[in-house]
Write a structure and sequence with these properties.
alpha/beta, 15 helices
Length: 456
């Protein structure tokens, strides 16, 4: 039986199963991507490739309802959120279509005094890239990897999550319908062993993975063994630091949104809520009440404030984490219950060092709340994590905002806002949250041959 299947998490229905790739199909995918990298990429201009990416953006918008309904069935995302993901993906493709050629322009080098001639940096593709993508944002994760790299002239072999074969198929169809030739973007329903084969192939220049720490470590080890460039976007346990506010209700609303977005299944969702002493009690009362109001509904009908978790296994894992947290001394202030694949919005208090929950990522709608005495303690607690992806800081003091943002160990800091991701803003983390960046000007600058050309 193939491991690639659409199983609707809201109903448990197996919608469709897809055949796992044969070894011959994997070999053919590498052949095709390599041929495209040697032919198509070298015979087209950045502007021509950008025009194709514009068409990819247009097709996402034209097919938005169909695409959105696919991922509702695959991973339970409410239809409104699914439509929003398709739109955001289109925006990402359009950003790189509009800006990619300029971002890849030659960069002149100022020569030392007395030197004659000129020098410049020319940015070119590396060749074939392997992308390994997760299930939580089936279109968005692909867009931020494939968009910039195809404008650059890299070619893509894409291995999507096992529960997202239908969206993976739909994405490949869009690239073909947009005019990309065979081999420029190749979807593969690969096994883990086949992924190892792809990474080891000398024609493959790099690999980008978004996923778990365990998967990231395994892929990085294999990539390192074969001297391949790697970009990793892994987990997060992002702090939401509240030091002051002039509108507590609005801040609480943002806190809830930052935790239950995508049913709590976002690597950069706010997960640890760190509140200064004088605001803690008022914040906690409102936060617990609002989290308790969040409830389920039919994801396809748009009735859900947030949806089911992505699978029965995901719900069982989260339930086990909460139980371990409580066994370790944590207190459940609201939620903590599971019904099938739906997990109630949950707030945990009294999570201390030594409790497994203190350093774990909860990939679902579970928040931890902490009281701190002052700014210094808030920073210390925010940084006391193996992760370093995003962070959220709320303060009415602009000097404090700059000071604290500088001291947070993370790849991203959002001040007085949440859910503010945008195509022009680089995304990525440090520590166990990975390495490298996607989106923005940095996203197109990862898998690049920065060739220095010196002319005497």
């Amino acid at each position: 039986m193939s491991k690639y299947a659409v199983i609707n998490p809201a109903t448990g229905e197996k919608v469709k199963e897809y055949a796992t790739a044969t070894d011959a199909e994997i070999s053919a995918a590498i052949d095709a991507a390599h041929a495209a990298a040697r032919g198509w990429a070298r015979s087209t201009t950045r502007e021509e490739r950008a025009a194709l990416i514009t068409r990819v953006a247009e097709l996402h918008r034209e097919r938005r309802q169909e695409l959105a309904e696919i991922i509702v069935r695959e991973m339970g995302k409410p239809i409104g959120d699914a439509l929003g993901e398709v739109d955001f993906s289109a925006d990402i493709y359009q950003y790189y279509a509009d800006n990619g050629p300029a971002l890849l322009a030659d960069e002149p080098v100022d020569l030392a005094e007395g030197s004659e001639g000129s020098a410049f940096i020319r940015k070119g593709p590396l060749g074939v890239l392997l992308g390994i993508m997760p299930w939580n944002f089936p279109y968005y994760q692909v867009a931020r990897f494939a968009g910039p790299n195809l404008v650059l002239g890299n070619t893509i072999i894409l291995k999507h999550a096992a529960q997202c074969p239908a969206s993976a198929e739909a994405i490949q169809r869009i690239f073909l319908d947009a005019g990309f030739p065979e081999g420029t973007y190749v979807n593969v329903y690969a096994t883990n062993d086949q992924i190892s084969t792809i990474i080891a192939d000398p024609r493959v220049a790099g690999v980008s993975l978004t996923g778990s720490e365990r998967a990231g470590a395994a892929v990085a080890e294999q990539a390192g063994r074969h001297l391949k460039k790697v970009v990793l976007e892994l987990g997060g346990s992002d702090p939401f630091i509240l030091l002051s506010t002039d509108d507590l209700d609005a801040t609480v609303e943002m806190a809830v949104n930052a935790r239950v977005d995508n049913s709590g299944q976002s690597c950069n969702g706010a997960k640890r809520f760190i509140v200064v002493d004088e605001l803690y009690d008022a914040f906690l009362e409102k936060f617990v009440a609002k989290m308790g109001e969040v409830g389920p509904g039919d994801p396809m009908a748009g009735e859900a404030a947030y949806g089911v978790l992505s699978s029965a296994q995901a719900a069982e894992t989260l339930e086990g984490q909460v139980k371990k947290a409580v066994d370790g001394g944590a207190q459940v202030l609201v939620g903590g219950t599971r019904e099938g694949t739906f997990f109630s919005a949950t707030v945990l208090a009294n999570v201390k060092p030594g409790n497994p929950a203190f350093y774990e990522e909860f990939f679902g709608p579970v928040a931890q709340v902490f009281k701190v005495a002052d700014e210094a303690e808030a920073i210390q607690l925010a940084n006391d994590t193996p992760f370093g992806l995003g962070s959220y800081l709320f303060t009415t003091d602009s000097e404090q905002a700059a000071r604290v943002a500088d001291q947070i160990d993370a790849g991203m800091v959002y001040v007085n806002c949440v859910l503010a991701d945008s195509p022009e803003l680089p995304f990525g983390g440090i520590k166990n949250s990975g390495s490298g960046r996607e989106l923005g000007t940095l996203g197109i600058d990862e898998f690049v041959n920065k060739k220095m050309i010196r002319i005497a």
